Amino acid sequence: MNRTHNAFWQLMFISLLFCSFTVTVFARGVNQTNEEFIAETFSNDLPKSKVVWIKDDLRPAIANILGHEYAGLRIRYWQQAGRTAWILDEIGKESPITFGVVVTDGKIEQIKVLAYRESRGGEIQQRAFTRQYADAKLSEQKLDRHIDGISGATLSVRAMTSVVTLALYLTQFINK
Amino acid sequence: MNHRMRSLHRSMGAAIALFVLLLSITGILLNHSNDFKLDKHYLTWPWLLKHYGVGNVQADTVYSLDKFVISQFGSEIFVDAKPVTSVQRPLLGGVALDEIMVLATDDALILLNSDGEFIERMGAAAGVPPMIQNIGLFHGNPVIQTREGMWRSDFMLDKWEEISLQGIGWSVPSLMPDSIQNELVNYFHGEGVTVEHFLLDVHNGRILGSLGVWLLDLLGILLTFLSLTGIWMWLRRIR
After folding, report:
1. Which CATH class is domain B61-189?
2. Which of B113, B123, B158 has its CB closest to that of A35?
3. ipTM of the prediction
């Protein structure tokens, strides 16, 4: 009886630990500041930032990728030795999610959630999910692969896919 | 026993009659919501708007720049009564340059063009000194005060030199003009609360918050007792 009792409490303790770990992983907040992301990407050898103005044909093309007008007149990027880093905000359901994307040779080198502000869908921050985008390329203004969704995080997944597509498209645009 | 049960049945019936009437009427109306176009009709009673938390339209901070009024409501930045972008930090000030307006939070500058459209947000990664405390103008050039010193740039805002100057025109908050305030009230209130929404909240008790939900639970329990006492009395009679 005593042994059963102990086993029960051990199981409860492990469950609580697991729950607290899960909450930590999916938590809202800033994972990395924009500055830290750029510094990490270029190993502290920061290139000067440049901007691409969203005008003429670029505006409707971006709206087509995002499914809505881009809320801004220009987007800043950092480029060095064939690698281009973008910091882009996109709304998941209600709040903007800040993504850091690195594109190398027309492929996704890295996608990171720098700040997550939604109340649900934080699972997209996990590497197990983001690695689906590794080496993704553009194919007729769309990603060249299918991205498996996450139940309960549909809008956040959609936001990340849009941002990855946008980063690839913008890199292609500035390198023309 | 039968007399006591009948008395209890009558008392409960009288107590819940009004609620049942209310539920029946709102239920019938909601059942025909589309026919009556209840989702297209709006209620703008001040007490109701206040009850739904849209009664008080008060900007967190207001700055007058150029010909525009810039205000912040939570994470939203408004130019006059139009939302232009969202920021996660409080606005600390703003200045108008030749062709752009520059707003400051403690970690970034928010650029708007002369039409009030959002251009971009420039943070430390774009070369803007961190820990901003205020923004001002010196001979037409933007100056920011940070925790670590004073910095000056030009309209490009991408190169900042550390300076120590007197006579800078620092940005100060201003009052919200009545005309813009009225437009903002219209923006936030919209057309009001739909009749459908209001009826639904009356029907499910949520118009009274969590108390309403408990009241409806109580009503449900009373209705259950009413049914049981009714059935019991009916069974007694047919025996």
Report:
1. mainly beta
2. B123
3. 0.79
